[in-house]
Design a protein that fits this description.
- By secondary structure, this protein is α/β, with parallel strands linked by helices.
- The protein has two domains: about 40-110, no CATH class; about 115-215, OB fold (Dihydrolipoamide Acetyltransferase, E2P).
- Helix content is about 30%, strand content about 35%.
- It has a five-stranded mixed β-barrel with strand order 2-3-4-6-5.
Amino acid sequence: MTVRAIGWASILLCLFFVARPALALETIDWEQLVPPLDELQNPYLRLSDDQQQSLYDLWLARETEAAGYGDEDLESLRDAAVAHLAEGGLDADQVLEELDNFVAAANANNSKLVGALNNKNVKIAGYVLPTEFSGDLVIEFLLVPYVGACIHTPPPPANQMIHVEVEEGFITEGMFAPVWVTGKIRTELSTQSIYLVDGSADVEAGYQIKASDIEPYE
């Protein structure tokens, strides 16, 4: 290869590396961690405000009666709701069944992950629930979408919890401190142990991030 050819090859090689884009950083929110539902299956979307209220009254009456707390007032509420839906050409049993099916689909969706996020470089805000320390440094934690998650209430679904590893560790301002987490996200279910005042509990996290940066949320 001539000196001129070597020179051109070097220039092209430099241009190739310069032109390669850096791994894009995408700021995401918690809703993006949940696969989309077919909202057309939600019966509420095709009802008027009054019909939505009747459907809610009907659902409330059914659930209350199923719990053994039925009375005449509840029967009147149910009958009025059925009559009002019928005036609009709606079959109360059919609409309730559609609602049940949509709720079941939404519940099943809680364990599903968004595969398109796998290996993306992301930034997301949430609250720190420490799971492992090295001295005073937090080296692993669950990032959760709201204060108190996993403590006094049932844990969020798996696709609303992120297990974060911080190689160098960081000092948190306290449990449920708000932070921004930056790093590569992986769609991978894992079981994490959290330690409570009255014992410990295992929870399932649907996403994993090896953090490249942790910063306070402001």
